[in-house]
Amino acid sequence: MRASRLVSIILLLQARGRLTAAQLAKELEVSVRTVYRDVESLHAAGIPLYGDAGHRGGYQLLEGYRTQLTGLSAEEAKALSLSGLPGPAAELGLGSVLAAAQLKVQAALPPALAEQLGATAKKFHLDAIGWYAQAEDTPFLSAVADAVWRSAALRVRYRRWKAPTDVDRRLEPYGLVLKAGRWYLVAAPGPRTYRVDQILDLAVLEESFTVPESFTLAGYWQSYTAEFLAGLHQADAVVRLSRVAASGLTGRDADALAATGVQEPDGWTRAVLPIESVDLAISRFLTPDVEVLEPPDLRAQVAARARAIAALYNQPQ
Question: Would you give the distance in Å from CA 209 to the centre of its chain?
Fold first, then answer.
């Protein structure tokens, strides 16, 4: 464990430049005192690592020092082959770059690990797009990605879902997120989230910006998705579910079933499930495997829709 942590310190400094003991401790999930001891061990091993005191201080590798990938384990080599998505990389204009990087990494590995890397790529394939969906047309994706890399401000024409639908925005692009085959841009002011496929026109400005040190793309996205999911839960419905319906629940519905489900003598399960709105819930619960009990308005509307469907199919062709 400690040897792995020492290698991680070197790789972190190699990848990010100067880092304080506190920053290293946070990345490695250890105490600052442990980082001090590890740095002393690296010094003793002859690693050209030095530290500066003061507000802008921190640890840094001697300029030009690079370590080799000789410490890569077999499991890490396998994981490495799953870390790249060829499709999204190509969309970002990095397809050839990714292929070249993978070749270089494979060439740098010992033969046994290179074989593991190749075998994993043959046995596993990552597809980011969900079923019944196609990749969105994103003609400005590569330009947005380039602006993200260069911290260049953008002027965009953007289509929203509410009026006025088409608006002009000056954006400072912080990062890109790929979610279920769809690209999202996280940008200031705000920051806020924008669908890249809804950008109608784009111009890169001769203006740069600085991303706040407190901002992390992963942290923002986690908070954003939590708020989004919470916003979908507008009300609750008390329902009875057949075994088939209960076994088919996923995500929030499965969690709600586990928390509130009560088995009834006939084999059905009574539970409280979250709903976004009565209108959306009607179609969702319009099945012989679900009986809506509450709210009364939802039960009445599901029953009315069921009667209308029955009347339609009772008519002669």
Answer: 24
